[in-house]
């Protein structure tokens, strides 16, 4: 088993910002309604950028911050809204960044896709001679929502996040890394997207799922690791809805100071939300060597996954 180190995180957002007052006027909602219901103040819509260009922007950002692109042996992109199945976004990034032959593929695992991608990268790096992996989460949701649907229009945002990880050989001990990734077979029709149609979300059922299965998943993870949440500095969850994250924190009996949130200014970017959160945390120096964090993904599939790792 190898130690995995997050070198850097990168982001890309379109220039067009959509504030609450604009949507509240369009949807004939009273002032303050959106923030009260979701916690969101702002979201982004891509006007000219393709989903491939957004993913590339995040990849370029993380490589610039890391100041390196050597030894990347794996690129995984996770998305729910790609408009081109072949070649994949990961292949597009490889070509544009002129990365030598490596493993490239995209995965579809709903909003939990980043967790799946990260865990797959860990497995590949453990079993193969791969020194670095580039993981990208990207979604262009503004094109697949009904702009008159309050349930999705006020929440979803466009954006991309990328994480560059490496295999560490210098540690004289095994850093903690434990995952708990699974798909829930029950009610997988409550959050769906079919190409050519709009995202469908049953808000009440999604809420019930999100505040129960995530808590079960984390408790299973902690049991596998044989530690308590007191040893964990942050839970970095998919930024779905502030009410959902508060409910998860309450059911885990922790304060919101341990549940990192940035949805207020970023919106719900589906597969991109966790790497974007990691970027914001890294930029604010919230994480330091030795910290233990839990990455938590959940959403369409229904896919639920968590990773307990040491920074």
- Counted by DSSP, the helix tally is 10
Q: What portion of residues belong to β-strands?
A: 25-35%
- Strand adjacency order, main sheet: 1-7-6-4-5
Separation of the first and last Cα atoms: 16 Å
SSE succession: EEHHEHEHEHEHEEEEHEHEHHEE
Model regions low in confidence, pLDDT < 50 over at least 5 residues: none
Helix content: 25-40%
Average pLDDT works out at 95
Radius of gyration: 18 Å
Number of strands: 14
Give the overall shape: globular
What is the SS-derived class?
alpha/beta
3D architecture notes:
With 311 residues, the chain is of the alpha/beta class. It contains ten helices and 14 strands. Strands 1-7-6-4-5 form a five-stranded mixed beta sheet, with helices on both faces. The protein has a five-stranded mixed beta sheet with strand order 8-14-13-11-12, with helices on both faces. Strands 2-3 form a two-stranded antiparallel ribbon. β13 and β14 form a beta hairpin. α3 packs across α4 (89-97) and α7 crosses α8. The two termini are 16 Å apart. The model has no long low-confidence stretch (mean pLDDT 95).
Can you summarize this structure?
This protein has helices at about 20-25, 35-40, 50-65, 90-95, 115-125, 150-155, 205-225, 240-250, 265, 275-285, and strands spanning about 5-10, 15-20, 40-45, 70-80, 105, 130-140, 160-170, 175-185, 190, 200, 235, 260, 290-300, 305-310. It is globular and about 60 Å long.
